[in-house]
């Protein structure tokens, strides 16, 4: 039974009694985690129907660059840009 409409990794960590880093390692199949802990985290994620919040997927590339100019009236900084 789902108790949350959208569960977060923080909530999964709290339920499992582990850190958010451990949850991240389990969900992304990274090393440095006990196999029993990984199984427990994945079980809880499946039980609560965890789905990652994908605003910009890992493969998405916005191609944006942010620039901060210290002095707009100095000719050096705008020309450097």
Account of the protein in words:
- The chain is mostly helical and 81 residues long.
- The chain has a domain at 1-54: 434 Repressor (Amino-terminal Domain) (Orthogonal Bundle).
- Helix content is 42%, strand content 0%.
- Helix 1 (9-16) crosses helix 2 (20-27) and helix 2 crosses helix 3.
Please tag this protein with its features.
4 helices; 81 residues; single chain; mainly alpha; 434 Repressor (Amino-terminal Domain)
> What general outline do the C-alpha atoms trace?
elongated
Rounded Rg? 21 Å
What is the CATH architecture assignment of the domain at 1-54?
Orthogonal Bundle
- Specify the CATH homologous superfamily of the domain at 1-54: lambda repressor-like DNA-binding domains
The top-level CATH class of the domain at 1-54 is Mainly Alpha
Q: How much strand?
A: under 5%
The number of E-state strands comes to 0
Q: What characterizes the major β-sheet?
A: none
Order of helix and strand elements from N to C terminus: HHHH
Indicate the structural class: mainly alpha
- The amount of helix comes to 40-55%
Named CATH topology of the domain at 1-54: 434 Repressor (Amino-terminal Domain)
In short:
The protein is an all-alpha fold.
Give the SSE layout.
Layout: H1 9-16, H2 20-27, H3 35-47, H4 76-80
């Amino acid at each position: 039974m789902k108790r949350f409409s959208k569960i977060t990794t923080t909530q999964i960590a709290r339920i499992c009694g582990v850190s958010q880093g451990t949850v991240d390692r389990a969900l992304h199949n990274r090393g440095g985690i006990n196999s029993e802990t990984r199984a427990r985290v994945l079980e809880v994620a499946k039980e609560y129907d965890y789905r990652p919040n994908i605003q910009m997927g890992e493969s998405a590339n916005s191609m944006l660059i942010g620039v901060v100019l210290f002095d707009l009236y100095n000719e050096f900084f705008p020309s450097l840009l």
